[in-house]
Structure formats: C-alpha cells, structure tokens
Design goal:
By secondary structure, this protein is α+β, with helices and mostly antiparallel strands. About 40% of the residues lie in helices and about 15% in strands. Helix 3 runs parallel beside helix 7. It is globular.
Amino acid sequence: MTTSAATSRSVLIEACAAAGFDAAHAEPVRLAENEIWRLPEDRVIVRIARAGQWAATVREVAVARWLAENEVPAVHVLSIEQPVDAGGRPVTFWEELPPHRNGSVRDVARLLMQLHCLPVPGSFQLGSLDPFVRVEERIDAATTLSGDDRKWLRQRHADLAERWEQRPAGLPERVVHGDAWVGNVAATADGPVLMDFERVSVGPPEWDLVSTALKLTTTGAVTEAEYAEFCELYGTDVTQWEGYELLAGARELRMTTYAAQYAASHPEWHAEAQYRVDCLRGRVTGRPWRWAGIM
C-alpha cells in the first residue's frame, strides 16, 4: 500500500467509526485530490476531501439534498449527520450507484437543462463561480515544468482573470454545476445521474456548456454530430457566443494546470502535461489537440 493510501485509510477508519460503519473491507476507488473509498458490505461510497475544505463539503451535502428535493437525478447523500471530521479532513457518505458507465454528451445536456432551470436556493449559500480556483496552487506544484513555462502560465492566468471580470453578457446567471463533463455523469439502467458537487455555484450557464464544446475543439473526444446533438438538446451553441474564447481559455488553463500538478507525482503523465502547455503556448498547431484524459 502506498503512503497516500495508508494515510487515507487511517482517515477512513476514523470517519467510518464516527458514522457507525466498519471500514475493514473498504476498497479504494480513486485516490486523488479527493479520495474515494467503497464499503462493499454497506453499498456506501466514502469521499474524503482535502484539509481546509469543511465549508465546501458542507455545501456539497446541502446541494445533494437540494437536488433530491427538486427531483434532479443525482447521487444521494446518506441521511446521517455529516460531514464527519477525521484527521482534520471532511468526510462524506453516499449511496453507491448501481452498475454504470460514464454518461454521454446527450446525458450531460439533459441534466444541465434540469439543473439550469432551478431557482437559486434560499436555504443555503452557494457563492459565485470561481473559474480559477486552485490554479495558482497547481502551477506552484507543477515542478516538472520549466520556470519559463510556469511564468507563462501565471501570466495567462492573470490575463484571463482580468478579462473574466469584464466578460460579455450572456445567459442569465443561475445555479451551475461547475465541472459538467461526461465523467461527472453516471449512465445507469434507470437513466443518467449527476455526480460531484464540489464546484456547484452561481454563475454563467455557459461555463457548464464549455466543457462539452472543448471535447470537440480541444480534445477531439466527441464528433461534430455528437456536439450538434448536444446543442440541439440544450438549445444553445456556446461556441457562437462572443465570450466563448474567454471561457474556453479558462477551462483549458484548468485542464493544463491539473495535468501539470498531477505529473509532479506521476512520471507517466510528464509528457501529457508538457504537451498541454506546448499547445497553449502555440508550439503545437492544428486543433483538436487530442489531449489524453488524466486518471
């Protein structure tokens, strides 16, 4: 077992004991920024957030319960007092989904339509969307990149952040998921289910649409026909909006700095992180760039 997994298991055991679960047979699902474990005997998913994320985790639980009240298909948080504080980290407990796979862009469109129609909740505060959350930290952690590349990323961040404050008007601001892509939608036998509420906030709905648009223009993960269907279902093609280049640039910066941070501790991703930087800096021409998925 790696040091990370051992540390995470220690937190897991403490949290499960506090919540009345037995972690003896817990299985790691994903050990990344947020660590996910499965309790197979209880069909429960345990999510261990980073230290210092207590307020954000409280908000995630509130969002999950609010979505359930408004009948938006989403993962269900257990009806216990949570989050649980374990080892200084907030831990939450969720119902395990039935067998599923990643959703399609059609599923993303359908769920976003439901989410974006909801009024902003009045029972708790969501806060405003921050498209650059943790970008500075990720650049600082990107030790496999050259000093020049990191300097360029910081300047790119500063330029985009300044433009964000003066972004063009678009659709009315509303509740947005914040990280709406096929990996955060589970396709089950009963239909698609929304997951991961860490970035749910109030902001421009175009931010949720950009993730799918980039799968056409940046990563090449969807076809033109698939993207056209996405636009038809949702009713808007965000690439035609005058603010698209700004939001796409912010999203590409997030994707690049995430890869660069991850590559610092995972040598197998050094090349991908550098490739993404090279694309942003104009060293690679011709879109889509076909970035490989991290994790």
